[in-house]
């Protein structure tokens, strides 16, 4: 049935005229034109052929332009432009000049500008705007410029988002349809004035990672110098020992490596803005007033902060595993044995049960904390996080996250359980690093505990459902928003 | 060509009237309405604007409803409803009341109910059914309620599946088209009677993980108490030693931590149902009879079982790495040296070559087993598993899985290779934990070996291709199904 | 508005006739037929029902064909074929015979052949071609055969690519539309002559991993025997020691495990083709000449090489962590202490500061290198890599990759920093393994350093933008391609 009907439809020219853009519907596939036979042009052509289009290349040297995908044609620019209504411009901006001379051939065509720049701000106007100025009669669409030749060749497009912009809605729609057939999801970003933004997009270098990375580097540097001063310089000045070798691996007073405190602090910083936001909402009695800008920015980079914290924790764990093989650690152990033997005590190795309990708890908490940390990290993977329901995601990131923070903080407290009150701990009147790094996590945990109190929790839930403490009386309980 | 034709199409009103829903085809984008200016409403609006729609908000306080996405309009509810045919209801169910009074404005509109509840079963009827009852003239579609404001804002929608249900096929189709433009994949779940199911969906908390987690907790608890009794209590009663500190990290008779046996057993439990299913099919001589329910349920949670087994193996491995830094282990080592020195034997440290071979093999198998375990886990990631061909997936999950199980079981056997026959091994006449945990894996491996026998394998392959031992004679070899 | 218009459209039969294939647009969903009630048939039916289609099964035993998805119908093959225009053939090729007798019922229908074979090349012609020969009046489309019953049941389809081929463009279009509704991305692979290729697709077993795996196995075997000869056999022959136990875990001269050199070499081999390609382009003065085939093949398996290198590095790291718990290592340590005690030196344990610096640097570089290695591996995950911009991906894979290689190479150099000139290092006049494995990485790093020289870098950038040294004069600077 279907086949027969569709075939008969093709015989009726008037019915075809109602689907002028649905060229894929016709038995003969639509012809698309690509200007440029470079890597991108070739990969794009291959992909278009695979998706059922016919492809013609426009080249300055049609007879010597290297290997092109099987099934495609190659012509001079002018002839190629004639045979298609959609033309991909896979040519460097520097060489757009020749398009101006071809403007008459391009009138009424859709030109897709896929070009990128090597750096930001080297041209006063975006490439696409420049192209539109050269060929005013054509409908320029900027887009697909985030696709690499590599991704096109390897078919890594499924579900990928691409942005389009352009002044002609028709042209954008034609490009969007073509994108959909390639397995892409096209999003409309408005008129051609957005072209600059789209062209800057592939030049972005982890913009959302900058703040968290700065915080991490700052914290790590602080603790590095803090430990150098307290450990190496203090030892040199007061005890006349040269333990400068410690700088390299660990700066270790046993295990407090300079990445371990920043890791805990950054994990706490992931959960601090949530606590601050809850306090603000409680204080204001409404959720309809915006948070200050710094809080918004902070909340948007929590995921990145958490991942950096995980990276630091990973370094901390590997470092701990390496500890027993280190020269200095083995040396200390051997010296201990030899000293004990020489002193020839009768009960040289009294087994301290409390010490064993303390240390084993310390390790158990560390292992469990790291395990939960890794779980949190795994659910940050786009493909894993995307398969969770909202409540599951919330459970993991909030409940499990706070549990992880609690366990890691406890790990820190147990580390120093018997040294808090010892004066020798406070070299040069400064607290040891592990105490410093427990401050922020403790604050976050206390804040969370307060929010979990039944009376506070109830008020907060009501506020988040839209209740307002100072609501205009006539509207109370009328409409609240999700 | 394309552009020209499309433009001329826009001039012919009759051709436009044939595409009443394809509003995206027109030069002026379709207007969508959102009731509610909360987080979800704002994020959804932003996303719709990005996808090329126009957006109007309906608000109870159009002049003081906080910051809305650039490019959107805001009006009173009534005015907003007038200007669009598709209305998103981003309002809490508690406040649906006002929609009843607006019913005349909403007649003939598509209302998309995105609401969720905080808990299951707090309302007798689903939110969407309630909404339909309030506004009988509108076509209510339940759906998109699995999207979070967070995912909408961060553009994590590509390829995500959303479910729709509703009584009007037209309305569902309109919502499905809109979803497709947002990059979502809409699946139809039937009439509005399925709304309750869709509303429970975001409230699910790892339903498929429950059974495996219970098994894991049960096994771990069993081995924990088994080890406490055999190690700590036995030591206390029979040898008068206090080794309670061991409870915390390890309960370790050297390395048998209480998570290690459950890990091996759970890995075996992943492959046991496959063996049972094959045996059942061989016994019945057909694949067309259903498996018992418990076997079906078991087979559906194999992936989760495997991942929990991997988690436990991860803990086991970390614990092993931590062993040499533990206080008690270092104490034992030092004591050993000192004792040896005191006794002043002439050849105190005879190097036992067999022991070295055994232990190094034990470690090598453990390392290899863990490595394969991690590989198996990586291919369970949706994005990795999805890129494998059927045969590759099968190769990894079946062949590599059984190899992993074999190596881990061998790791267990070597652990106790020289203690199987020693009476001291059987404290209080109980076998040690590592023996207990080898039973299930051994059974699975024997079962697999039997299935791999050529004669059995041949019969099984024929059965799986549709052959039946007791097939009605007239149909033998006629049609079998994939 | 929308709903009303669409409904009125359905009342006009002529407007409906213009959308013969857009069955989803009609209020009554399209009926699809499935021949075969096996696992695949049932899963596919379930999925089609979820996507809003009606489903009818054709079965040889309509009354006893086991449980089918709720909402589907089941009939005899003939009756089922009558009621749908698109028929899925979920039957083994061996039983296609009955379709020939049904040919009259199937004329004009679209037959989707989903079948796969168990092995390559067991049939002279592809299943789909055979089917077309049996039913010449139908339009056979080969495709969807990469979907497993398991993926269909679990809804793991979103964004997945499926390939279609067939002689009728109409039939392919109908199947492609159906695929899109299921959340799949359909790619057209041309006429039915491509069917054999599509049928071989699910039988592929990691084709792109073969070369890297062979290289890895070769290198590992080489280093294994090299270490056995230099360590075990040399020790046995020259020093009369039996250290055969070392074969099992490590073949370790301290830490040089037989997987560690291959890991470093394979990481270098990932970056070597890039260097070779750059040199070739510089030498030829153009980017328009193709690379030799071996270089192309090499460049295509860089990702797999890198991942295998990561796997080997992972083994190396785990092995290092296990070192202190090994029997032989503990034995060496104890023997050392006892020997020192017996000799009763006055300053038995001189702490060598240089040694401590060297070893701690060695470990620090190793930890950092492994950390970066893991980062590189994570960005190879499809879901992570897909979310990076082109510049970010480039930054990670090129800059960070070379940094990783540099750090790992430095780790290797420091390992042997004080043994390069010692004659005892060269047992039997052979260099130790770690020296051998530093050759390739050093070459790659030198090559990269040369390419980074400003003058070379500038020329290379120009060549990659399309500049040619020997360009025909009339065209210089005219058009270059992306």
UniProtKB/TrEMBL annotation, chains A, B, C:
GO BP annotations, alphabetical order? copper ion import; iron ion transport
Q: What is this protein called?
A: Metalloreductase STEAP4
State the species of origin: Champsocephalus gunnari
The answer to whether keyword Nucleotide-binding applies is: no
Please provide the record's keywords in A-Z order: Copper, Endosome, FAD, Flavoprotein, Ion transport, Iron, Iron transport, Membrane, Metal-binding, Oxidoreductase, Transmembrane, Transmembrane helix, Transport
Q: Which PANTHER family match?
A: DUDULIN-RELATED, METALLOREDUCTASE STEAP4
Q: State the Pfam families in the record.
A: F420_oxidored, Ferric_reduct
TM helices/strands, residue ranges: 211-229, 264-283, 304-322, 362-388, 400-421, 433-456
- GO cellular component terms, semicolon-separated: endosome membrane; plasma membrane
For activity, the cofactor(s) needed are: FAD; heme b
